[in-house]
Amino acid sequence: xxKNIVKTEYYKIDKKITFESGVxxxxxxxxxxxxxxxxxxxxxxxLVIHALTGDAHAAGYHSENDKKAGWWDNMIGDGKAFDxxxxxxxxxxxxxxCSGTTGPSSINPETGKPYGLSFPVFTIEDTVKIQKELxxxxxxxxxxxxxxxxxxxxxAMQFVMSYxxxxxxxILIATTSRLSPQGIAFNAVxxxxxxxxxxxxxxxxxxxxxxxxxxxxxxxxxGHITYLCEEAMYNKFGRKLQDKDHYDFHFDVDFQxxxxxxxQGQIFxxxxxxxxxxxITKAVDYYDPATKYGSLQNAFKPSDAKYLIISFDSDWLFPxxxxxxxxxxxxxxxxxxxxxxxxxPCGHDAFLLxxxxxxxxxxxxLDNHMTEKCNE
Length: 376
Hints:
By secondary structure, the protein is α/β, with parallel strands linked by helices. Helix content is 36%, strand content 16%. It has 2 domains: 9-178 and 288-374, Rossmann fold (3-Layer(aba) Sandwich), CATH 3.40.50.1820; 184-280, Rna Polymerase Sigma Factor, Chain: A. The protein has helices at residues 124-137, 151-162, 181-195, 213-227, 230-236, 256-268, 274-286, 289-293, 296-300, 320-332, 350-353, 355-374, and strands spanning 9-13, 17-18, 24-25, 28-35, 45-49, 76-77, 82-83, 88-92, 107-108, 113-114, 145-149, 169-173, 306-312, 336-342. The mean pLDDT is 96.
């Protein structure tokens, strides 16, 4: 079977964008991919938004030799949940990222050097502004749906709040309207591991032979623990030893779970930038629409979108109770909202792994929404 070959495109926002902090910043290049075809009415577009360390490559392959498909390939495509025979799906790399969209590792045109810490601190609201600029460029004035998991769900939520007249439906998966103190704490420890790396050099490491790889690797290891759950870790690793049948009584790797986390950290430094990790996790920490708008009800009130909220029973990073808070807020406002908690042993990562059940729920929601739209 031939692979679905896709290409990453780039759009340059050749003006300054005012960030929530008041800083004006630009130009900004946005890396994005599209799947399916925009119809003549331009009303079949779906914006899917990646999680913390994702990128624009949500589906398909970049070449016939590419071994790894996009991060939501099992959800996006002909006949899949986000059916590209019906919908025009757009995915872009986040502001501040390191996979094609302007971020700390990008070259500052005024200095000819990477921005580093001169890159402005941004918020989830700012990332949504950049998504909107991209959609304007693509000629999309209305979104059939906006969807995302984890931090992507935060951005999808904020898109509804920032542009309520533009969004017809929103799919919020394994997400929250604000991090718990525990979530903020994990991000803080991850950032501290990067900043404490002697090779971080106050963010000026791009021209150095040694990068803050150890700090970034540790940050990834910390984060990865929160993406799993006790059941998932026990089923996968238990207390099994790594390539041995007895303790060696030293501080090298003894257990399989240690080896797994080290591997996850090592492969992460090959694809991600340490400064981007600092900036993006800070944006997640700051996200709190209830405080910004006075209450969560005030934040959602202008929207007439239909909502699908999905959580996973083993997700302790963004637990179901946080999704239910969003659901209850929408119900109290009289909004059209559907909610499903999926049983899964995969923890927070379930939104990237539990395709079968999740796909059926999303596909049903979108198809019913399409039927209602056609009958209007």
